[in-house]
């Protein structure tokens, strides 16, 4: 096997929400594979920087509140100008709001859809424009969810947003695959992260979830990071428009 097909040496990868959880796992994995990682977050990236340094990698912190109007695209343009060209974009940043559907507020709906779906489109659009104008190849990896294909409970806006991410991934692949831009997504299962903290803190809910995972454990951010490296690397050159579950077998049961 040619291991160079899984190398990101010489590539610059931008990862949103890189300060914790899945985003941090992706940043560390990409750096370990040789990439220069542009880590985007609104809060401190010190912990991610330390973990990247521990694997001999390089992380460039990029401060941005992606929820602020116009901030996401401005950030990408600035990052390209200062650190580019950028070879890969990982749309990981997202939020979740839990409430019964009958009680889900319009404000929470708007906040979730704005960051989880609209920002993913705007960043992908801005990145794609740059690549197309320069005739460059590139990779986009969106972080979808098991709730891109299932309904879930008490997360109406999140489920809608992640269904949207799945559709957007396929749409962009249809338009850009022939132009050298690979667009794919990862659907994480139940991973130990901030978004699942409430579930893991509920003994009954946590036990029920764990009992259904064939692998017998919650996922780790590194599990998602390694899958992202594959989708960012030459090894996945003929992979377009797919959504790869990394779920410990959840969807198989």
Structure description:
- With 253 residues, this protein is an alpha/beta fold.
- The chain has one domain (3-244): NAD(P)-binding Rossmann-like Domain (Rossmann fold).
- The protein is 44% helix and 15% strand.
- The chain has helices spanning 21-32, 46-54, 71-83, 106-134, 156-176, 197-201, 203-212, 221-232; strands at residues 12-16, 36-41, 58-63, 88-91, 138-143, 181-188, 243-246.
- A seven-stranded parallel sheet has the order 3-2-1-4-5-6-7, sandwiched between helices.
- Helix 5 (156-176) links the parallel strand 5 (138-143) and strand 6.
- Helix 3 (71-83) packs parallel to helix 4 and helix 4 packs parallel to helix 5 (156-176).
In DSSP terms (H or I, runs of 4 or more residues), the helix count works out at 8
Structural class: alpha/beta
**Order of neighbouring strands in the sheet with most strands:** 3-2-1-4-5-6-7
Q: Mean of the pLDDT scores?
A: 96
Instruction: Determine the fraction of residues in helical runs and give it as a percent range.
Output: 40-55%
What CATH architecture would you give? 3-Layer(aba) Sandwich
Shape: globular
Distance between the amino and carboxyl termini? 32 Å
CATH class category label: Alpha Beta
Strand/helix succession: EHEHEHEHEHEHHHE
> Over the alpha carbons, how many angstroms does the gyration radius reach?
17 Å
CATH superfamily: NAD(P)-binding Rossmann-like Domain
Instruction: Characterize the largest beta sheet: strand count, sense, and whether it forms a barrel.
Output: 7 strands, parallel
Low-pLDDT segments, ≥5 res: none
Specify the oligomeric state.
single chain
Counting structural domains, the number is 1
* Total strand segments: 7
């Amino acid at each position: 096997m040619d291991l160079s097909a899984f190398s990101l040496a010489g590539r610059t990868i931008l990862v949103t929400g890189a300060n914790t959880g899945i985003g941090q796992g992706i940043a560390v994995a990409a750096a370990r594979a040789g990439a220069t990682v542009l880590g985007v977050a609104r809060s401190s990236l010190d912990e991610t920087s330390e973990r990247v340094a521990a694997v001999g990698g390089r992380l460039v912190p990029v401060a941005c509140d992606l929820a602020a109007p116009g901030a996401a695209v401005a950030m990408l343009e600035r990052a390209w100008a200062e650190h580019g060209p950028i070879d890969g974009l990982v749309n990981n940043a997202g939020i979740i709001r839990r409430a019964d559907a009958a009680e889900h507020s319009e404000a929470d709906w708007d906040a979730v859809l704005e960051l989880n779906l609209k920002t993913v489109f705007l960043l992908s659009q801005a990145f794609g424009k740059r690549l197309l104008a320069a005739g460059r190849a590139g990779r986009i990896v969106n972080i979808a969810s098991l709730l891109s294909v299932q309904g879930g409970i008490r997360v109406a806006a999140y489920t809608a947003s992640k269904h949207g991410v799945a559709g957007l991934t396929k749409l962009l692949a249809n338009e850009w695959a022939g132009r050298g831009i690979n667009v794919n997504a990862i659907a994480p299962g139940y991973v130990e992260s901030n978004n699942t903290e409430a579930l893991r803190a509920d003994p009954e809910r946590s036990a029920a979830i764990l009992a259904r995972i064939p692998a017998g454990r919650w996922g780790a951010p590194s599990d998602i990071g390694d899958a992202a490296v594959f989708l960012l690397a030459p090894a996945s050159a003929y992979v377009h428009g797919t959504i790869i579950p990394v779920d410990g077998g959840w969807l198989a049961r």
